[in-house]
Structure prediction request, 388 residues.
Amino acid sequence: MEAGAQEQRACLLERARTIVVKVGSAVLTTRDGLSLDAVCKLAGQISALRDRGLSVVLVSSGAVAAGRMRLRASIPGAADIDFGELPSRQAASAIGQSRLMHEYDERFAQFGKTVAQILLTRDDLKSRSRFLNARNTMRQLLGWGVVPIVNENDTVAVAELEFGDNDTLASLMVDLVGADLFINITSAGGVFDKNPDKHPDACRLSVIEDVEALDIEGMCDGKTSVGSGGMYSKLRAARRAAQLGVPTLIVSGRGDMPIDRIFAGEELGTFVLPCRRTVSHRKFWLAYHDNPAGEVRVDAGAANALREHGKSLLPAGIRAVEGRFARGALVRIVDEAGATVGMGLSNYAAAELRRVMGRKSGELAEVLGQAPFAEAVHRDNMLLDAAL
Prediction:
């Protein structure tokens, strides 16, 4: 790592006061179920941060794996259950979540710390009022010195309400609690310049200075199917955090938990620096706390006006509209090649946009009868280069 990046890393670690730590199931579980040794080490190192006056939110996987292992040990024929099916995965999570929290409660208590369980679905955060209520609850818990332990509520989540993986959930927690640092503990030693499983000569990147410029899909050979997330989702989560001005450390937890060594100054894993130009928390929430209801394809001129000049999207630049959505819905904006330009709230319903696409703003009232907005998507309600 170059001296400048090393100094920036040390400075960002020193300034961190609220930290989101995410740990994956590959780190927390073995063939026999939960690794109590891993849970105990994690509890001890997070407790040490609390003793230094830092606030920590733990996003923990492992419930489904813990439930699956318990089922296979106690129910005849459980080895034949297809845990890829949603009902089986949800049932396994219901069994495993209580076991996971029991172990965390016991291990943190050994260090004099209290934990709280927070189970969320995307529906809990896409409502602004519920989002703010969750934020207030988290702030109160952190103010009391409690360690919130967050997981997706697999038992009730359906496909459209899923975060998809806990990397995504953790990046949203960075926004929710106003974190200063995101530590993603995984089974990999960091980010490599290419897939190390396929390329033995792959080199670990000690620092990523511009995560927005990375070809994430190319580096990860597409959206990996390893686990529920893989390195693709970790880099995407790091990119989201970077947009908020928050650095991410992607680091291995295999064999030993790395948190104490990180704060002792060891250069472990890959440090993802924050973006120089950050986005507001409001725009972040608009773009990431809901699934897009449709897609708006724009021409080259409109794509350039959005990307290079931060303009609003006008109906004149729209070439196609996909999906059925109402006014105020979240839509994905793509260019002629299908690449994402951004996400934003549509001022008009899908059917209305189809009637006015390609037309000048002055013609909207003539076509629609009334046109309260000149823009299809206003720039104040749009996040460009969204890490979707």
Q: What stands out?
A: The longest helix spans residues 86-109. The mean pLDDT is 87.
